[in-house]
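As the work plan foresaw, the team has encoded backbone shapes as discrete tokens. One protein thus recorded appears below exactly as we store it.

:::
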Amino acid sequence: MSNKLKKTKDTLVETYTNFMSNEPFQMSASVSYYALFSFPALLIIIVNSIGFFYSKTEIKTKIINEISSVLGNDTAVLVENIFKNSYDLNQSKIALYVGIATLLYGATGLFIALQKALNKIFGAPENSNQTFIKLIKNRLFSLSLILIIGFLLLTSLILTSLISALSDWISSIFPSIIVVIFQVVNFIIPLVLIAILFALMFKILPDAIIKWKDVWLGAFVTSLLFSVGKFALGIYFGTTSPESTFGAAGSVILILLWVSYSSLILFLGAEFTKVYALKYGNGIINK
């Protein structure tokens, strides 16, 4: 066995060992619980924040279609109802401000839960006496990630729309191989954008300092696993209809399962990033 293969094997074995020792299913269950309450606020904030630059209708349609492709039509209808029942901008100022504050607090709760899980993975010490300033700082970090998600979604919408338009034009002029290349590019773009999001999570959320060059490899591995798993789950949910087992609560259960799966992928990627940084990178320093 060559030296590179041995290093890869050792890294993967250590990653899996650390992953299982940190009780990932318990952590993902905790994140899923917070996600259930954060999900509506998260969707509304993302749509309204990037609605300044792009059509809100198209943004909502994109989100609903993505959810429908993975979790089915029933869950997509649930998300559509969330958009319909979002707060009314014509209400009184006090009610509006309270509504916005509630949305912000609810949406950032998911990332606070993720931060605690990543701190455990990266070995950052747990601070039981968290100051008010630290709490506000964590919420602001979480809010910044929400806005970044919105920006990445906006970028994805613009680029995929542009590529689709160019593909239609190119298909009538150039050979089919060029169209295939454009389709490959259209697949790579979301992969890169998701990798950027994971990299920002690994870099910003935990109370640990990790060099960017150690973060990127783990982020791309995580993005690849996430994309493959998303495709596999879409096939599974589309053929087995697990929501029918739970009746009226089926859509909510599917969202919890999806978040739980996504969390497990995130945690596995974080473990890989940690092992790589400690064995071959610049290490990890607690803040």
